[in-house]
Amino acid sequence: MQKVTASQLIDRAAALLSDGSVSAVLGWKQGEFDYDITPAVFADEQALRDAFVWNDFCGANFSKYLLKATKKVDGKVLVFLKPCDTYSFNQLLTEHRFDRDKVYAIGIPCEGMADIDKVKAQSGDGIVSIACGETIQVTTLYNDAPVSVELADVLEERCANCKSKKHVAYDELLGDEGDVLDSARFDEVAQLEAMTPDERFAFWQEHLSRCIRCNACRDVCPACTCEKCVFDNPASGVENKAPANEFEEKMFHIIRAFHVAGRCTDCGECSRVCPQNIPLHLLNRKFIKDMNDNYGEYQAGAEVGSRAPLVDFTLDDPEAADVLDRRG
Amino acid sequence: MQRIGVFVCWCGSNIAGTVDVKAVAEALSHEPGVVFSTDYQYMCSQAGQDMIKASVAEHHLTGIVVCSCSPRMHEATFRKTATAAGLNPYMVEIANIREQCSWVHKDMPIGTEKAIILGKAAVAKVHLNAPLTPGESPVTKRALVIGGGIAGIQTALDIADAGFKVDIVEKKPTIGGKMAQLDKTFPTLDCAACILTPKMVDVAQHENVRIFSYSEVSEVKGFVGNFDVTIKKHARFVKEDLCTGCGACVDKCPMKKVPNEFNLGMDNRPAIYIPFAQAVPKVATIDPAHCNMLKNGKCGLCARVCTAGAIDYTQQDEYVQEKYGAIVVATGFNPISMDKFDEFAYNQSKDVITSLEFERLTNAAGPTAGKLLRPSDGAHPHTLVFVQCVGSRCTACAEKGKEYCSKICCMYTAKHAMLVRDKYPDVDVYVFYIDVRTPGKNFDEFYRRAVEEYGVKYIKGTVGKVVPENGVLKVQASDLLNNKQLHIDADMVVLAAAIEPDRSARPLATMLTASMDTNDFFTEAHPKLRPVESPTAGVFLSGACQGPKDIPETVSQAGAAASKVIGLLAKDKLMGNPCVASSNEAMCNGCSSCANVCPYGAITYEDKEFRMPDRTVALRRVAKVNPAVCQGCGCCTVACPSGAMDLNGFKNDQILAEVDAICK
After folding, report:
1. B643 vs A230, A260, A263: nearest CB
2. How far is B621 from chain A (nearest CA, A)?
C-alpha cells in the first residue's frame, strides 16, 4: 500500500491550480482496465476529482512528458515524481531538455509498483476489477470472492531491486524522504556475464526474437528524446523497419542501449511497457555495471550537470591503457 | 555520379613487392564510377603527378583515389596535384596500401586481396565526398618556450634574433636547467658555466624575450597561430622588479638548514635563496615551506635587511594570460630515482652518488668548491668505481628502469673518469660498462684518451652488489672479458642513472594535446622528416623532452625548432582545416554531450527559432561549432546521441560506406 493517498495528492494539486501557481497537472488516470493506469494532463480541479488515480499500478515515469507539456502549457506544470522518476528528471535537466522554471515538482514516496503478470499468477486470468488498499483485492470472472494479493509479493522487478527511495529533485516533498538503497540490481547481469558466449547468445536470441518492433520501449524511455530518432530517419540507414533477419532484430535493442549508455538512469520503464516481456533493462544495466567497474560508480541523474564517464573530457582522464590494465 | 580515377602506386618495391599492383588497378576499374584506373612506379614523383593531372583532363574526373602510402605521408602532395588539375583538393582519397598492407604482409595474394578491398573502400568514400573550402585564421606573432634550460634558451634566442617576441616559462627560480649544474662538457672539456651563463645573460637582455621564472603553464586553449595560454607565476615573496640580487637577505636568513636542490641536497641553503651566483633572473626567492615568517609570522629579518624593500610576505600566485602563435616544449629531463636500485646501496651510503651529484662535487661552485672529497667524511678517496647503465637498457626489469639507452652516460662517465685522473693521478678509477657507445664527432677519440692516456680501468661487466662495510664500499662485480669475479674496495661509487622526461611533461602534453610515447617522451610528427615538430600543429619540440640528447644535439634541435617557429610566425594568415565538425540544427537536441567531450572548447549553444511541423514556432537550444577552434578530432560526433554532429570529410555516411565496401 502506498504511504500517501490519492486524495492527498488531489487536494494539493487542486490548491496549486486554484492559487494559480500551476496551470496544469501531470498525473495518472485509469485506462481500459483497473490495472491499466495511464498518464494524463489535468487542467482543472473538477478533472482531477473525476479521474486522478494514485495506487499500486501507477508505474509511469512523467519526466519525459515534461518536454511537451512545458512547451504547450502557459505557466507551470505540476508533476508528481516517485523517487526513481526524479533521476530521469535530473538527467533531462542535465541535457537541457526542458525549462526547470516551468515545472513544479512534488516528490511522493513509493512503496513499489505491482506487476500485473505476477498479480495474475496469483489471482488467475479474467480480472474484472482491482481495488488497492492494505492489500490488492482482485476480482475475477472465475472467483466469487476477491483474491487478496500482497503488494510485496507482486512487485515489478525494478521495484523489487529498487535502487533508491530518495528523491534527488523536487520543489516540495509529500510524506517522508527515503534513502539510496543497497540494491541487488546487478546480480542478474553478473549471471549473464558468467554464461558462455553461446549461452548468452541463446538467452538474448530467445528474448529478442519476440520483439515486434512496436517501439514502446523507445517511446517511453526518458533518455530517448532525440528531436529526430535515427530509427525514424530515412537518411540514417537504420530507419524503422521490420527486422530482415535475426541479426537485425537484435541490433535495434543493442543500438538503443548504446544510445542511452551513460544517460540511462535505470528507471526500468522499457521493461515495464514491453508487451513481449523482454528484459530490456538488463542491456542497460550491463552498461551501467561496466561503467561502474571501469570508471568508478556513476549514477546518471543523481545530480544535475553531472557528466557520464563515457561523454566527458577532463585533463586527468586515465589513458586507455590504464583502463585496460584495471580490467585485468 | 562521380567520375573517379584510380592511381595505384608501386612505391618502388615497397608496395609492388607484396601487392600485384596491376591486378589492383584492374580490379578497381570495375568499381562503380571508376572511369580510369592505372598503376605507376612512383605516383608522388613529378611524372606520376603529371599523369594524374593529365588523366583528370582527359577523362573529366571528379574524384581521385590514390592507392599508395599513408595519407600522413603524401595526402597533402596529392591534394595539391588535384588543385593544380582544377579539382577541389578534398575530392582526393588515399587508400593506404603500404603501411596498412604491403608492409605488414609477406604473401602476394593476401596483400593483393587486401589492397583491392582498401581501394574499394576509398572509391566508396569518394562517391560521398563533397568539395570543402578551408577558412583562414590570423597568426599571433609571439612564441612561447616552455622550459628554460639550454634547449629553451637557444630556441628563444634564435626566434628572438629573427625579430619575433618570445616568452620563456621556467618552473625553477632561475633559467639554466641541467647544464647550469654541470662542470665540464664533453668532448672539449670547456666549462659548462663559461658557455652557458653568457647565453643566459643574452636571453635575459634580449629586447624580444620575456622570462617568466618560477612559473608554470596552467592552461592552454586555442590552436596553431592562436593559442591562449595562462601562466601561473608562483609567489616568490620577493618583488622581482625591486630585488637587486645583492644577497644580503640570503646572508642574514637564520633558517640555514634547507637542503640545497641546486647541489642535489649535498649542502644546505637558507629559506631565502638565489640558486647560484649566475642565476637569471638574479632575484631572491623565499621557500614558503621553510620560512619562519611565512610559517608562523616570526622573523622578518630579510625584510629588515633589504634596502630595496623588495620582500613582500603577502605576495600571491599571479596568473598571466597571453596569446601565442607557436609553442615550443623544452621541458628537459631528470635522472631517475635510485630508490629501486638497492643493490648499489645508494640509500645506505652517502659515498654512493649519481653522476649528476658527481658533477656538483667536481664543480668549483659546488659544495666542496671542486675538491674531490668523500661525502661521508670529507676524506680524499683513493678508489672510485663508476657504474654505467644504471636503469638504462633495462630490458629484463622494465618496472625498475628504462628500456632505452640514455645516450649521454658513456660520454660523461669518460669525462668524469678523465677529470679525476687528471687532477688526482693517485686515484684508481674503474668504469663498469655493458658497451661503450661513442657515436659523435670526436667522441670515440675522447673515450680512447680516457683509456689510453689517463689510465682509466674500463671493465666490461656489471656490478652486482655494493655493500658499505667499515667505511669502505665492497664492490662485487664481474669481468666478462676475463671471465672472473672482482671484489673492489672502493671509497666512492658513482652511478650513471638513466634519464627520464621531466614529470611536468605528461600534464603539459595533455594540455597541448601533443602525443607522447610510452616513456613519456614527446612524439615527433615524423621520426626522420619532421623531428622537431609535434603532430599537433603549432607545437614544437626542443631538447631532451623528445628523447635523450647531449648538449650539441640539443642545441641543434633547439635551432631547428626555432626555424620552424620562425617559418610559422612569418606567415600572416594560416589556412584552416576544413575537416571540422558541424551540427545539423534540425536534429540537435541541445543536450551538451558534444561540448562536454570537446577538448578544444569549440562548441557553444544558442537558442534558435524553429518552425515545427504543426506550423508553430519553437525556441530550441542548438549546438554551434567554431570552425577556427575545432581540430576535427570527431569526439563530438561519437558523443552526439541524435547523430546531429558530423565531421566534414569524415561524415558518418562516408565512414559507413567504407565499412560496407570492406564487408561486401
Report:
1. A230
2. 8
